[in-house]
Amino acid sequence: MVAAASGTSVRVTVCELPHEPAALAAAWAALCEHTASNASELVLLPEFAMIDAVWQDEDFDSVRWSAAQKLSDAWLARLSELRVEHVVGTRPAAKDGRLFNEGYLWSSARGLAPLRRKFFLPNEPGGWEATWFDRGDREFPAFHAGALSFGLNICTELWAVETYAAYAARGVQVILTPRATSSGTAAKWLSAGVVAAVRSGAFSVSSNRVDETGTCGGVGWVISPDGHVLASTTPEAPFATIAIDLSIAVAARDSYPRYVFHANSERL
């Protein structure tokens, strides 16, 4: 675990991004300009950013999967255009004949590194994820990006509330959640982000896909460990950058309600 010194901060960017080629080209150029002008250090991209949401179709199609992988690889090669130290997102990945929704950490110093693969997969109209992906990693470890300690809960996994106690115990400072959620459920997801932040004592940070139909409805956010929404995105302002003070997350471990559960766990 990396402990943040008092005053250590990281400038984090959240966003809402389309995947349609013309809209994406304009949005990507604007995001690159935003990260440069706002001195961003870490960018969180939405779930499966820049590529087709293949899971919206009930039937698996190997041709579409291969196309998504190829396009994802092409976009991953362009992450340096953001001119930041770290980028986190998810991508289609295959291993030993199994297909995954895999988190990644890109760094300007070391390039691309895999993180955990999505474990909790819905399977219903509009979200046939268990059809398109194999289950990934049940564990939710702490990862590191420079001084930042973070957990990765991919979209639906924001509802895996059982992970927050472990994050609190490990001193995780930020929970990163790339999403692909609808406009009609935005308030519900934001509420989940507040619970994630307050229970874990970490910042909840999320970016979302967006499209004209509302199937993916934007609204990225940064929420403090005490549950305050510090920044959020809108159609008019699809990117937001804020400096998060990591020492706040360190101090939050010993404040309510985290200390209550920690104290009781030591007695069990």
Q: What is the quaternary state of this protein? A: single chain
Q: What characterizes the major β-sheet?
A: 12 strands, mixed
Per the CATH scheme, the topology name is Nitrilase/N-carbamoyl-D-aminoacid amidohydrolase
Total of DSSP H or I helical runs spanning 4+ residues: 7
List the helices and strands and how they pair.
Blueprint: E1 9-17, H1 21-37, E2 42-44, H2 62-76, E3 86-95, E4 98-107, E5 111-117, E6 123-124, E7 127-128, H3 129-132, E8 143-145, E9 148-152, H4 162-170, E10 174-179, H5 186-200, E11 203-209, E12 221-223, E13 229-232, E14 239-245, H6 246-252, H7 258-267
Helix pairs in contact: 4-5
Provide keyphrases for this structure.
twelve-stranded mixed sheet, 14 strands, alpha/beta, 268 residues, two-stranded antiparallel ribbon, single chain, 29% helix, 29% strand, Nitrilase/N-carbamoyl-D-aminoacid amidohydrolase, disordered N terminus
